[in-house]
Write a structure and sequence with these properties.
The chain has a domain at 50-172. Helix 1 runs antiparallel to helix 2, helix 1 packs antiparallel against helix 5 and helix 2 packs parallel to helix 5 (138-151). The chain has six helices and no strands. The longest helix is centred in the first third of the chain and has 48 residues, at 25-72. By secondary structure, the chain is mainly α. It is elongated and about 125 Å long.
């Protein structure tokens, strides 16, 4: 009886295939990090939606005003439309009703403060919309308004904070007052 000793051995047993579920702890960490980043992105998009929408519509209107000015050379109408557009943008973005009462140098100071800018051509908004004979170029104001809109904060919370801050600083200054009458020029 000559038996082969190898014949009594069993074949190699392979372990069961590795299951994809449940994933290793590292995959769980990566999953929650990605989920958190997506939630932050969604939150940021919701926070900036209003400014993006208003800025897009205002830029379209700026282009239309610019086109109308270039075709008609009517500076009085261009300055009036730019003044109205600026006020509409601010009133749409602002939750503070005190903004509507700002005029003159306070208005320009306010515009520069909320955008953290120092654009000199915004001063054209003080007098030029009310003049009949204007020598200034409204395209300079159009360019500054585009820059101003880009510099506005994206988040509504930051914009409201800057508005509150401006009114607090302005109310502490002795020269601040609400101007309730419009500027009139002959």
């Amino acid at each position: 009886m000559n038996q082969d000793p190898l014949a009594a051995l069993r074949d190699v047993h392979l372990p069961p295939a590795i299951s994809w579920w449940p994933p290793a702890p590292g995959w769980w960490i990566i999953f929650f990090i990605i989920l958190g980043l997506l939630a932050l992105l969604f939150w940021y998009i919701l926070q900036t939606r209003k400014k993006r929408k208003v800025s897009g519509q205002a830029n379209t209107e700026l282009e239309q005003i610019e086109y109308r000015f270039l075709s008609s050379e009517n500076t009085e109408e261009a300055f009036r439309e730019l003044s109205i557009l600026t006020r509409r943008v601010v009133l749409t973005l602002s939750d503070d009703s005190r903004v509507a009462g700002l005029r003159g140098k306070n208005w320009v100071s306010f515009l520069n403060h909320i955008a953290a800018s120092h654009l000199k051509n915004l001063e054209m908004l003080i007098v030029h919309p009310y003049l009949k004979q204007i020598e200034a170029d409204p395209l300079l104001l159009v360019d500054d308004l585009r820059q101003w809109m880009k510099k506005l904060p994206n988040r509504q919370k930051i914009l409201n904070l800057r508005i509150r801050e401006w009114f607090e600083n302005a109310s502490n200054a002795s020269d601040f007052k609400f101007e309730s009458t419009m500027l009139t020029h002959d």
